[in-house]
Design goal:
- The protein has about 110 residues and is mostly helical.
- The chain has one domain.
- Helices cover about 60% and strands about 10% of the residues.
- The chain is built from 5 helices and 3 strands; from the N terminus they run αααααβββ.
- A 3-stranded antiparallel β-sheet has the order 1-2-3, covered by helices on one side.
- InterPro entries: DUF4260.
- It comes from Faecalibacter bovis.
- Keywords: Membrane, Transmembrane, Transmembrane helix.
């Protein structure tokens, strides 16, 4: 089952990467912003629950896809670019097995323990 989930995430990553390429967005910004959602892990300095909440907000497809939709429908290229980068980061994390965090600690995710 995990392999199917990882294959789905790989497919999503490839699709998002292809869209990003097609739109000729900046690869410098892609490199700069790709790991910024991981800064949400700073929340773990305030405990597992706060850390999990911060991490899950930053790694949530609802927010990243809404960001993409707002950028697309309001013709805001920068917003669309950021949404695509965040979405690709989430897919990349899930390929590696990093899922949404449980309150037990960083290593406990909805995809299983890391």
């Amino acid at each position: 089952m995990k392999n199917i989930l990882k294959l789905e995430q790989l497919t999503l990553f490839i699709v998002i990467f292809s869209i990003y390429t097609h739109l000729n967005f900046s690869w410098v910004w892609f490199a700069v912003l790709f790991f910024t959602p991981d800064l949400a892990a700073i929340g773990y300095f305030f405990g597992n629950k706060i850390g999990a909440i911060c991490y899950n907000i930053a790694h949530n497809y609802i927010i990243s896809i809404l960001t993409c939709a707002i950028g697309y429908f309001y013709n805001l290229d920068t917003v669309l670019m950021v949404g695509l980068i965040i979405t690709s980061h989430i897919a990349f994390d899930r390929i590696l097995g990093y899922g949404l965090k449980k309150y037990d600690g960083f290593k406990f995710t909805h995809l299983g323990n890391i």
